UniProtKB/TrEMBL annotation:
It comes from the Eukaryota. SUPFAM superfamilies: Cytochrome P450. InterPro entries: Cyt_P450, Cyt_P450_E_grp-I, Cyt_P450_sf, Cytochrome_P450_Monoox. Belongs to the cytochrome P450 family. May be involved in the metabolism of insect hormones and in the breakdown of synthetic insecticides. GO terms for cellular component: endoplasmic reticulum membrane. This is Cytochrome P450 4F4. GO terms for molecular function: heme binding; iron ion binding; monooxygenase activity; oxidoreductase activity, acting on paired donors, with incorporation or reduction of molecular oxygen. It is a peripheral membrane protein. Its cofactor is heme. Keywords: Endoplasmic reticulum, Heme, Iron, Membrane, Metal-binding, Microsome, Monooxygenase, Oxidoreductase. It is found in: Endoplasmic reticulum membrane; Microsome membrane.
């Protein structure tokens, strides 16, 4: 992630031919190889585990759908209908999650706490819900009790909407495509600005 950040801030590094001549490129490639081996091992291991769990499918019920993590859902979709994501696509998605997860949890917690401090009325509702669900020290923290924190979940998701963990994301075109009447050649970098997207009034309505 440090090498990626350096490349973003250095205009010379944006030229692939020049960047490949630098030591930073070698460090990045070595790190990518380590991440690739680690990520693929996670995919293969989890696929084997899911194959053994014959009774667990995405279509079982709402509880199972909510309890399956992102990787499980992708793998189960491929298992159910035979189309879904390819192994390479699964790898790319999981690579993004692992790369982004280095400090996003702490960042999300910090942003959520900041918003709660800015809006005491919302903070009071969250505290009230927590007290209602965990009214005793004997109450366990598990999937069932967490599922009852609906308002708290909405607050966290709203914090993520306003301050996404990954404000922008980039993808490289594998072939020539036409998007909204615009021809985009192969090997072009497309950047999605989630920060701006999450604040568009035509999607989310006016600010409350």
């Amino acid at each position: 992630m440090e090498m990626v950040g350096r490349r973003i801030m250095n205009a010379n590094y944006m030229v692939n031919a020049l960047y490949r001549l630098t030591g930073a490129y070698k460090v990045e490639q070595k790190a990518r190889e380590v991440l690739k081996r680690f990520t693929k091992q996670i995919i293969y291991s989890r696929r084997e585990e899911l194959d053994k769990e014959q009774n667990v499918t995405v279509k079982d019920d709402e509880f199972h759908r909510r309890s399956l993590n992102f990787l499980d859902q992708i793998l189960m979709i491929r298992k159910d209908d035979g189309t879904g994501f390819t192994d390479q696509e699964v790898y790319y998605h999981l690579e993004t999650i692992i790369s982004a997860a280095s400090d996003t949890t702490a960042l999300t917690v910090a942003n959520t706490l900041l918003f709660l401090a800015m809006y005491p009325d919302i903070q009071n509702k969250v505290v009230s819900e927590l007290n209602e669900v965990f009214f005793s020290e004997a109450i366990e923290l598990n999937q069932d009790t967490l599922g009852q924190l609906r308002y708290t979940e909405q607050v966290i998701k709203e914090s993520l909407r306003l301050c996404p963990s990954a404000p922008v994301e980039a993808r490289q075109t594998s072939c020539e495509i036409t998007l909204d009447g615009v021809r985009i050649p192969k090997d072009q970098i497309l950047v999605a600005n989630f920060y701006t997207l999450h604040r568009r009034h035509d999607f989310w309505g006016p600010d409350p």
